[in-house]
Amino acid sequence: MNIRTIRIGVVGLGTVGAALVESLQANAGIIRADVGAEVVIARIAEKDATRRKSIHAPGTVLSLDWRDLVADRDIDIVVELMGGTSAARDLVLASLRAGKHVITANKALLANHWTEVLTEAHKAGRAVGFEASVMAGVPVIHVLQSGLSGHRISAISGILNGTSNFILTRIGENGVDRRQALEEARQKGFCEADPSLDLEGFDAAQKLAILGSLVLGRWLPPQDVHREGIGNLEKEDLLEARNSFGYVLKPLAILKRRATGVEARVQPTFLDKRSPLAEVSREFNALLIESDAAGPITLIGKGAGGAPAASGVLADIVEIARRIRHADTGASVPRLPRPEHVHVLPYDQLESRFFLRFTVCDRPGVLSKIFRCLSSERISIANSEIRNTPDGATGLVYAATYRTHAKAVRKALKTIDVQPALVKRKTLMVPIQE
Amino acid sequence: MNIRTIRIGVVGLGTVGAALVESLQANAGIIRADVGAEVVIARIAEKDATRRKSIHAPGTVLSLDWRDLVADRDIDIVVELMGGTSAARDLVLASLRAGKHVITANKALLANHWTEVLTEAHKAGRAVGFEASVMAGVPVIHVLQSGLSGHRISAISGILNGTSNFILTRIGENGVDRRQALEEARQKGFCEADPSLDLEGFDAAQKLAILGSLVLGRWLPPQDVHREGIGNLEKEDLLEARNSFGYVLKPLAILKRRATGVEARVQPTFLDKRSPLAEVSREFNALLIESDAAGPITLIGKGAGGAPAASGVLADIVEIARRIRHADTGASVPRLPRPEHVHVLPYDQLESRFFLRFTVCDRPGVLSKIFRCLSSERISIANSEIRNTPDGATGLVYAATYRTHAKAVRKALKTIDVQPALVKRKTLMVPIQE
Fold first, then answer.
1. pLDDT in the model for residue A165
2. Does B410 reach chain A within 8 Å, measured CB to CB?
3. Which residues contact A225 (CB under 8 A, 6 or more apart)?
């Protein structure tokens, strides 16, 4: 066996790239022992001069253009940390074609180009590491890929966006309103410049697409994930749900195999207070994996930040370097994804319990009419609370249904919500996870 | 590449063995796809005729003697599920010497013969899988071995014994007494015939020894783990700690690197209500991993039972079979453990906060004497609650100290506990995890 130095090329020196350079230096001894060879950053490509100057990496060649890394025949592993889906896609595909292993933390790239990237890797006989793309340093990809090898995973549900979880936690626990909570998240650096990626569920849908594609062995397009943001929920709803119904609201991403297809959705969901995900609060992320034999398994950790994401990249580097060192490449080459996409079931077919909030006109007969609309769709109510607002003219009716179809509830609400004599605003409808 | 059938030999058809045979049959299609080859149980060894007859395994040769499996040159992987440390040790060593990969769920064997087993595997160039030995199907071994490759793990703390956790949960939440809780655990099948292995911490100490040996790269002997059972704690202590101090009692196993050595202990420990491990209740197990970059990572799941343990074995089978299939063996061979043992720090050197319960004689001057004994050892009290028992002659003093050394507390209690004019029974001393 030819023991040689393993050479890494890093593209992009943002927070993750800078943290990676640092942790590769700090952990050099551990990495050497783990791999059985020296692992060095041979080249870094970064356009921004300030960023290039900010790092201390003696012995590393700095470039402006990632093409220099792809052309360097001595580079074994390319780490893509540039972001975006255009140049990043070119870099990843070119690196694989040049016979390099690739590691990326780029969820948008993987979620949108899953089949293309994995097919190219399979053809090239090279590994693609993407531990950091979902839940940063929490090794959910490792667990799904090898910790549960040979298992049939029937469902995964998780809190994949820390910003939304932080905001809902603050509203639900402390009764601050949504605007204040967002401002707090911003101050703590949990928000993107454009918070809608987090708050509207786009970020979580991409992550669910990656996990789903991995579990199902074929592409789950992120745009097929049913997606709802956290924007319709008021402080009062969260407090009422918790105090009167025992429910905690979490921004859940859910993938479930069903007989007729796959359920894939990202939406605020009520959970029983004692559910393992209900206690995952603030900026923490979690994933609950259900398989045929192992019982429910939950992983919890920090899902964002430079150091945690760099930690996911580092684990991939060491795993791939170990295989290069031992000339073991077979098992790390991704399987060819099956060509057809995942068939996602329409949201209407979701069977669940639902939490409803009606903002009703406070006059005689309103309640009976609303409950009649529900029962005509065979929706039964498990419990209900009725509150009056200070103005005396508006009532709030909170109701938790028994298990029913989303279609039935939507149909009933469609009838109710068009009657200004009954309700004053659109009725809130949130699934309750069992 | 030579694509052939991969042959498993299973020794022992207890609950785990029977569940394994079943899940290998049920998941044959998934396993074939994961491995890229057929994986079959070629031989089973089991002395008990009833057990042999109870399983349905057409095409599998049944033996009375495990030596038949070792002698069979076509067997690739031997799965040891016989238990005990004598014949099991012979089987594991003989299998490795015969060039077979080995999988075992036997925590006693690994904890006590760590260096011997891993050295033999290293010499033979064969893998040893032991995912099921700790937390059954929850892939903590995979996460420590490869999900966090290249990381310096600074501490792990976990709930590794489901029986103790079940009992403490029942006492703390429902105020049942210890005897009732144990009876309940027995009825639910959570107890061994001899419950002292669970309740006295022997089981958790073996599991911590395995995790510690893995993290530290050298043997942590289970008998060097500081070990305390859950026998000294009363219902009243748990309720008082929760209601007045906000603490939840958990049976914790803790390994921590310190500048002067390693802290390794299994003992009931108070946790802040909001700690991630505080919510892990009933028979569930959990492990919290602290590393340099990833932030705290928690894994939660069912730590016992036939199907969950078989699930851990299955994951190992598929991982090793994949490598056989791809002729990749290098990276899966365990590293040679360093020859020296882990140096475990004496318990006296533990720095922590402590929860104390004094059972005092209810007369003037007692409190001032007790607090004087504490302060003369420089122990400061963060908060304290004083309760009277119905007989009027006995007081209960609960106190949470600030951070101090176990040695100082033990010294103070030694002075206090020998004075029958002050206290009526041995003072309870439980660490508080920060």
1. 96
2. no
3. A205, A208, A209, A212, A253, A264, A265, A266, A344
- Domain spanning B347-432: which superfamily? ACT domain (3.30.70.260)
Range from A80-89, A299-308, B70-79 carrying the lowest mean pLDDT: A299-308
Q: What is the ipTM of this complex?
A: 0.93
A151/B315 Cβ within 8 A: yes
Q: Which of the residues B1, B32, B284, B297 would you substitute to probe the A interface, choosing the one with the greatest number of A C-beta atoms within 10 Å?
A: B297
> Could you identify the residue written with the tokens 């140096």?
B343
Name every chain A residue with its beta carbon within 8 A of the beta carbon of B30. 150-152
Q: What CATH architecture does domain B6-137+306-332 belong to? A: 3-Layer(aba) Sandwich (3.40)
- The active-site residue, picked from B47, B100, B107, B207, is B207
Residue span(s) of chain A under CATH 3.30.70.260 come to 347-432
- Assign 3-class secondary structure to A67-87: HHHHHCCCCCEEEECCCCCCH
- Closest CA–CA distance from residue B27 to any residue of chain A (Å): 7
- B344 SS3 class: strand
Return residue ranges of chain B for CATH 3.30.360.10: 141-302
Mean pLDDT of B133-156: 93
Residue corresponding to tokens 């300030």:
A50
Q: What is the CATH number of domain A141-302?
A: 3.30.360.10
* Chain A residue at shortest CA distance from B297: A301
Q: Does B279 touch chain A (CB under 8 A)?
A: yes
A259 and chain B in contact, CB less than 8 A: no
| Residue A136 at interface with chain B, using a CB cutoff of 8 Å | yes
Residue among A131, A129, A150, A147 nearest A139 (CA):
A131
Q: Min CA distance, A342 vs chain B (Å)?
A: 18
Q: Which of residues 5-64 of A touch B (CB under 8 A)?
A: 19, 23, 26-27, 30-31, 33-34
β-partners of residue B229 are: none
| CB-CB under 8 Å, A317 with B295 | no
Top-ranked range on mean pLDDT: pick from A190-204, A254-268, B46-60: A254-268
CB pairs < 8 Å spanning A and B = 197
Residues spanned by CATH 3.40.50.720 within chain B? 6-137+306-332
Task: Using a pLDDT cut of 70, give the percent of chain B over it.
Answer: 99
At residue A270, φ and ψ (nearest 5 deg) are -85, 140
Structure confidence by residue, pLDDT tens digits, A331-374: 577 888 898 999 999 999 999 999 999 999 988 899 999 999 99
Residue-wise pLDDT for A226-245, tens only, equals 999 998 888 999 999 999 99
Which H or E run contains B249? strand B247-258
Q: What's phi and psi for A170, nearest 5 deg?
A: -65, -40
> Which residue of B295, B302, B315 is in closest CB contact with A308?
B295
Radius of gyration over every alpha carbon of chain A, rounded to an integer in angstroms: 24
User: Does A317 reach chain B within 8 Å, measured CB to CB?
Assistant: yes
Select the residue of B136, B151, B318 nearest A311 (Cβ to Cβ).
Answer: B151
Active site residue B424: no
pLDDT at residue A288 is higher than 90: yes
* Confidence category of residue A294, pLDDT binned at 50, 70, 90: confident
Statement: residue A248 has pLDDT above 50:
yes
Question: Predicted confidence band at A1 (pLDDT cuts at 50, 70, 90)?
Answer: very low
